[in-house]
Amino acid sequence: MEPLELLEPDPIADLAREAFQEEFQGGCYSGRFHEDNWEEEFEKIPLFMKKAPSEIDPMKNPDLACLQSIIFDDERSPEEQAKMYKNEGNDYFKEKDYKKAVTSYTEGLKRKCADPDLNAVLHTNRAAAQYYMGNFRSALNDAMAARKRKPWHLKAIVRGALCHLELKNYTEAVNWCDDGLQIDAKEKILLEVRAKADKLKRTEQRDMRKAKLKEKKEQNENEALLQAIKARNVRLVFEPASEEEESASAGLCKLLDGLNLQNPYGAKPSMDDQGRLSWPVLFLYPEYAQSDFIAAFHEDSRFIDHLVEMFDELPPWDLERKYYADNLEVYFEDEEREELYQVPPKSTLRQVLQHPRCFVKDLTPSFLVCVESSVFSRRYFGARNVQ
Question: What are the start and end residues of each TPR repeat (predicted)?
């Protein structure tokens, strides 16, 4: 064997080899994954994304934008596009992102495909998303739309029954359940909803009957009360809406019904089993801008008896200790004539209310109370016509 021939060193080749080695000794590939953030990097790749971004910016996510344009290509048939949006909505629904699911199902319906079954599914799925968002009326509308396209679509019937239950349409809920149970007599949700809706419907009907009976009873009591007031010739201040549209009796019934709203004290006249009346009465003390309210002043009670009880202890605002029963004067005012009429202490409320110049406003008699012959009384009543 001939000995190997030694090659002479080539300076140019050595320089090329060194340059090649230096290239691989430089920094690592800039796009490589790092141990600390490899999951975040994977999430940026469309194939490995667990959740799509809310808005796709072609500049920031060109790969994803490209895939989306391919999936929802306008050249695809309406049915294919609708299915794509349905699947997208289902993915959002699984993630419990119901708002985006609604948007996807809506886009699917906008494709107006000719497949009634697919459209029924899109409406039903959107109804489910709306239901979990608490939009029960919108969910019900979708369930009804689904049934128009597919009358015996069980899922749409279930969803509609649930919506009727939430909206307290108990009769409709029962009817929808009955429709669904004709398809599947063992459907658990429908059986549960029907039982609950039927129970609530019966409770609602019972409450309505009670309310009507109560209303009728109150109406009869008010009419009897008005008759008793008229029989006593008590003059009430009341202006009906018009003489042609409403009688005074009907107007007074309305006033009685709404008195708790009109009267800040929340009381109105009442009648006992013997036909005797009690009135809510207001006592005003102009000297100190104070007042007392008696919720039930019996018509046969005397004013002096109430004054004795009211001023058994001196009120905290009476710093001069001068307000006691035997030292007080009581008046009622005739606003029309601007006159004051003194009330005899031993007279009953019924006797005073039957006075020809006593008018009861808002079904609450009111009286002024002052210290007899006091400086304030002379000054306050001196400028008025006292009878």
Answer: 82-115
- CA 118 to each of CA 70, 138, 145, 272: distance values in angstroms, whole numbers, following the listed order: 21, 19, 12, 70
Task: Let me know: does 89 contact 133? Beta carbons within 8 Å.
Answer: no
Q: In which element (H, E) is residue 282 found? A: strand 277-285
Q: What are the pLDDT digits (tens) for 279-328?
A: 999 999 999 999 999 999 999 999 999 999 999 988 999 988 999 999 99
All structural domains of the chain: 72-202 (1.25.40.10), 255-386 (3.10.20.90)
Instruction: Say if CB 359 and CB 336 are below 8 A apart.
Output: yes
Report pTM.
0.57
C-alpha 140/C-alpha 169 separation (Å) is: 11
The DSSP string of 172-187 is HHHHHHHHHHHH-TT-
**DSSP annotation of 27:** P
Give the pLDDT confidence of 182-219 residue by residue, as tens digits. 999 999 999 999 999 999 999 999 999 999 999 899 88
